[in-house]
Amino acid sequence: MAYQFLLPDIGEGVVEAEILKWFVRAGDAVAEDQPLAEVMTDKATVTIPSPKRGRVTRLLWKEGDVAKVHHPLLEMELDGVAPEVAVVVPVPRSAAVAPEPIPAMAAAEVRAAVAEAVDRAGPVGSGRALATPAVRALARELGVDLQRLSPTGAGGRVTKDDVRAGAGRNGAAGNATATGLASVPVAGVESHEVEIVPVRGLRRRIAEKMAASKRTAAHFTFVEQVDATELVAAKDRMAKGAAGEGVKVTFLPFVLKAAVAALRKFPQLNASFDEARGEIHRKRWYDLGFAAATDQGLTVPVIRNVDRRSIADLAREIERLGADSRAGRLRPEDVGNSTFTVTSLGALGGMFATPVINHPEVAILGVHRIRPTPVVRDGQVVVRDVMYVSLTSDHRVVDGSEAAAFTYEVIRHLEDPSLLFLHSV
Asked: What is the pTM of this model?
């Protein structure tokens, strides 16, 4: 019998998800807990499992579509089960909560539920096209202006076929559904080819989050030099000891510990800013994100309770989260709701950079390449291991003097790593 289930709540505040990949097709038999689709939210990439055994009869979205939470995802046939809509919740490993089925919906009600996601607009001719989020997403990808289309859908709505037809009339825009080449005229010279790469998946999420951060936060950056000679020595000693346990120790655990020490002293930076309420939310815990590079782009996994972890434990968690980021298998609890973020490019870190704040946080710490550098110590020129750190803050929340004092507190703990063990495990 027909069985429908809805795109689940994947995380706090998530209202939609992009369909990255289907693992099944119409007609496929599926087992319980078999992966059905991979979806991406603004927090994580998540695999949606099948709630029961059955056979897929219809996929309601295409790869690249943006589906709304609590709207039908696909249909299945189940033996001996009455039609119903099911919500499948990807439960974190630490939880054991069984989702409750939602009462059955008639086909007309399903269509009405999907229509609820349509942007509110006036009648045709009022200056705003009527279209579902999926159609609007397709129009953005193809570079089509919905206002210029003649809608053929019910009630004057623009359909996907209308968008595709419009893209075909626009020439090069019709090639934007996949990476490819298009001929682009250049005034006064012969046409040239341009590679068209649609902005999807993680790259789309990065673009949205970075733009939101720059639109809201008043960014400013403070930069200072660090004598990392003692840090290098401490890291090398600990790395040798941890190697026997299969733990790879890098500089990042030390930086995270130094950041927590500074955040304890300057809690204004361990916060988020709620623009709508006009409130600063100071966090009394330390869940620190770190920027991790993947083939798809930058993601920010989060280490929980950094203040309670040892250097070795942090090293293990960094390695796990980095590997899971690159493999695209981060769990919902591995991302989002961080209190502060650290970003580092390691050997590619350059002299210094001005990182963009991980909105809605109020500051981000950048650590950069360590290199032998001649410096003056006690009137003598000596070679020391030196790096720069940069702190970008939201000037609406953090004053310049506070940002400088915070940075010097981080530097104090990096230049004397023994301080990292005074008040933590």
From this structure: 0.64
